[in-house]
Amino acid sequence: MFSTNVHIRTSDSHSLFSYSSGDRLNSDTSVSLGDHVWVGRHATINKGSQIADDTIIGQHSVVTGHIDTHCCYAGVPAKAVKYDITWDRSRVNHRSLIESTYTYRPKQRLIDNFLLQDNSFCGDQSTLEEIERNNVIPNKPYRWLER
Questions:
Q1: Are strands 79-83 and 71-74 parallel, antiparallel or unpaired?
Q2: Minimal CA–CA distance to 53: which of 97, 18, 85, 19?
């Protein structure tokens, strides 16, 4: 999930060269984002960053390097500020209550029913209207809730 004005950079937008050898010193490098990552407003993710699954990047943070799973990072440069966490868009008081919010998220349930089937190429063929009418709940919980 991305907030507004998030910048993901895979280069410095300019080249630095060694004066003596002529070789470029700042090559472009890919960014890796895991599953279930929440990036806050005005965050910058610099080239070469690796963000693990199930993490939060706080607003106005600058990420450079490796970000561990189940953590919240914030600041310039981004540092771990909370550990052993997960997140969800629903506003409930306990993680165990997240599944009860599926009735209010039919599009998410449609996606879940497709992606969480044993054969993700076929998935659940239910339409959004059928899911809303039958109040279908995914047959498997989210991976990050299985801890």
A1: antiparallel
A2: 85
Query: Alpha-carbon distance 147 to 44, whole Å?
Result: 29
Q: Which helix (H) or strand (E) holds 74?
A: strand 71-74
**H helices present in the chain, as ranges:** 106-115, 128-134
Give the distance, in angstroms, between the CA of residue 19 and the centroid of all CA atoms in the same chain.
40
Question: Residue 133: what are its φ and ψ, rounded to 5°?
Answer: -70, -40
pLDDT at 41 over 90: yes
Q: Which residues on neighbouring strands pair with residue 83, listed in sequence order?
A: 71
Look at residue 144 in the predicted model and tell me its pLDDT: 53
Give SS3 for 41. Answer: coil
Closest CA to 49 of 35, 62, 36: 62
**CA–CA separation, 113 and 1 (whole Å):** 20
Give the per-residue pLDDT at 120: 46
The identity of residue 137, as a single letter, is I
Name the residue among 53, 59, 19, 17 with its Cα closest to residue 36.
53
Q: What are phi and psi of 134, to 5 degrees?
A: -90, -5
CB-based contact 15:26 (threshold 8 Å): yes
Whole-number pLDDT of residue 88: 82
